[in-house]
Specification:
The chain has helices spanning about 40-45, 70-85, 105-115, 130-135, 135-150, and strands at about 1-5, 15, 25, 50-55, 90-95, 115-120. The chain is of the alpha/beta class. The protein has a six-stranded mixed β-sheet with strand order 1-2-4-3-5-6, with helices on both faces.
């Protein structure tokens, strides 16, 4: 496991799992930190090289120069993957329908701007900003189900 705190305009990230495994980048809309993934990141790290990060302006990530928009976040994700030497990786973007801090449309737009982006909208009670924390008992099975519907190079 490694954690980086950048000095420049990049993202502070957490990378766990075998560095030779297929990479999986986890994005929780905007306004989230590495910790938003709770127990899911370590569970997925048994099968993938998992990368998650602090969104711009949060945790250890530098704030955006102006304001955070989908293009800025997509550019920073692309730069992070480039820095890590990852040429292709499925990027999972999740959003909660009740999230007012990072509305679902923002997550969907990010997933459309990032190569190999995949979007999942969580609905119902507790589907606000901290999905992994508010619905932790449901979150891991929901994401595993999502990954089953969108096959990746390795099996869970």
């Amino acid at each position: 496991m490694s954690t980086e705190r950048p000095a420049d305009n990049s993202l502070s990230y957490l990378e766990i799992g075998d560095s030779s495994a297929d990479p999986l980048v986890l994005v929780s809309g905007a306004g989230s930190t590495k910790e938003s993934w709770g127990e899911l990141a370590p569970a997925l790290a048994e099968h993938f090289r998992v990368i998650c990060f602090d969104c711009p302006g949060l945790g250890g990530s530098a704030p955006p120069a102006d304001r955070l928009d989908t293009a800025t976040l997509a550019d920073r994700i692309a730069a992070l993957l480039d820095d890590l030497g990852i040429t292709a990786a499925p990027v999972l973007v999740v959003a909660g329908e009740q999230d007012t801090l990072a509305p679902p449309r923002f997550g969907r737009q990010v997933s459309e701007l990032v190569a190999d982006g995949r979007f999942e909208l969580f609905t119902g009670p507790g589907s606000s900003h901290a999905l992994g924390l508010e619905r932790s008992a449901e979150f891991v099975p929901l994401v595993r189900d999502f990954l089953a519907r969108h096959p990746l190079p390795v099996a869970l």
